[in-house]
Specification:
The complex is a heterodimer of chains A (115) and B (115). Chain A has 115 residues and is mainly β. Chain A is built from no helices and twelve strands. Chain B is built from no helices and eleven strands. Classes of the chains: A mainly beta (115), B mainly beta (115).
């Protein structure tokens, strides 16, 4: 069965420092991987996805993520954090060939960026 | 105006009451979904619909029902609400054509409290 884990409930980082939000997955075959962000009182917004190709994926708001097949990870990164990046981040995974009814979300990681 | 609109945004009700959450979209997407978000559990799929005549149960459909009134409208009902249905509910859409590799578009959520 496919699954996704976000090992940190919360990540704290100072503004201007690099940030990493971790995600590991388990899926049969080559995974489709996604990151979504949820700002307070808002719905989830798509950040980026990995389907195939270059392992480093660039997305919205300066975020990027690196697909590492050997470590089954898809960590979200940003070189310089902003206070406005503070939000709840979700990693999601599904196996190829399925629809969005097969998309599995992680529990979420709350990112707090301090001035 | 939001592409995916949910009403009501907040609702407090009592155990045993019937509740309907409504979702409408202007994205022209065929596929619509209802998710439930609980702290520490991420998002879990309740029901999904790939077109007006197609309704499917998701991971946690017990205690819920849905109706796809039109391509743009997908409502979620709790026939007899219970306290453990207290949660944040999200409607989402995806495009049939790009649905296999595209992203989900979410409404802003409906916070339901069952006393």
């Amino acid at each position: 069965a496919q699954s996704v884990a976000q090992p940190e409930d919360q990540v704290n980082v100072a503004e201007g420092n690099p940030l990493t939000v971790k995600c590991t997955y388990s899926v049969s075959g080559n995974p489709y991987l996604f990151w979504y962000v949820q700002y307070p009182n808002r719905g989830l917004q798509f950040l980026l996805k990995y389907i195939t190709g270059d392992n480093l994926v660039k997305g919205s708001y300066g975020f990027e993520a690196e697909f590492n097949k050997s470590q089954t990870s898809f960590h979200l990164k940003k070189p310089s954090a902003l206070v406005s990046d503070s939000a709840l981040y979700f990693c999601a995974v599904r196996a190829p060939g399925g629809g969005y009814n097969k998309l599995i979300f992680g529990a979420g990681t709350r990112l707090a960026v301090h001035p | 105006d939001a592409d995916v609109t949910q009403t009501p945004r907040n609702r407090i009700t009592k155990t045993g009451k019937r509740i309907m959450l409504e979702c409408s979209q202007t994205k022209g997407h065929d596929r619509m979904y209802w998710y439930r978000q609980d702290p520490g559990l991420g998002l879990r799929l309740i029901y999904y619909s790939f077109d007006v005549k197609d309704i499917n149960k998701g991971e946690i459909s017990d205690g819920y029902s849905v109706s796809r009134q039109a391509q743009a409208k997908f409502s979620l009902s709790l026939e007899s609400a219970i306290p453990n249905q207290t949660a944040l509910y999200f409607c989402a859409t995806s495009d049939l054509g790009t649905g296999k590799t595209g992203e989900l578009f979410f409404g802003e959520g409906s916070r339901l409290t069952v006393l």
